[in-house]
Each structure stands twice: as structure tokens, then as C-alpha cells.
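## retry 2 of 3
previous attempt timed out at serialization; input unchanged, resubmitting
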Amino acid sequence: MKSNALAGLAFGLVAALAACSSAPEEAPPSGGGLGVAAIQFQDVVVPDGLTMIERFNESYSIEEAGYRQARFEYSGQTRVEDASSHLLQRMPQHAWTLSSDEQVDKATRKLKFIRGRYIAEYTLVRKDGITTMRVDYRTDIDTK
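## retry succeeded, writing output
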């Protein structure tokens, strides 16, 4: 009788473990499992030909109670001149005002836009035939 009780206990334990391990796993969140989410804000202008890079958490965003912070990384074939021209034309259509425009060197241009308490800084770099664009977006908490 003792061996039947132990066998029953063992069977019950194995069945319980099997049930736990065979339960379907939840799908990872969009964005690929662990890591940070990068949800592009609707007022961020992206020139044609540039695609967001998310695979190694290069891009991230957070929006909470009117506070926004993000870094969006993009890459593509678009030339820096064309992307900059697009930004200078389209950002004002989203109520952004150009604050600064700096040609750092032949391959790098920085554009800074302000809208109310939000700041969007675009850095465009052309290297080895690829253009990368970084957008640093933040809420200016120093509202004097």
C-alpha cells in the first residue's frame, strides 16, 4: 500500500509539472521581447527612404502625462541634403519652429526645432553611402 501511495504521489507530481510546462507561452510584446518600446510620436517627421532601427534598442520612447522623451534612430539611402530639405519644409506644418541649423562638417547636419515645451533635435550623418538620422525628442522641463 505504501508503494502505491508513493507511486500515486509521484504520478500526480509529474502530471502537475507537465501541465505547467505545456501551458502556452504568452507572445512577446511587439518590439521583440525584452527591451524597450519605440513608438514614434505622430509629430516626428521622417523623410522618405529612412526606416526606424529598433533591433538593438537604438530607438526608444516614453510618453506619460504630457511628458515625452525619445530617441529614434533611422537609416536609409536618402541624402543628407534631401532629408534636411524635407524636414525644413515639413516640420513647420506640424507647428515646429526652427531653432538652429548647423552644418557640423561635410557629412553631418544638425537641426533643432521647438514647439511649445517640446524640443526635437535631428542629427543627420552620411557615411559609407548610408544616411543615419537620430531624433532626440524631449519635454523642456525648465519652463521659466
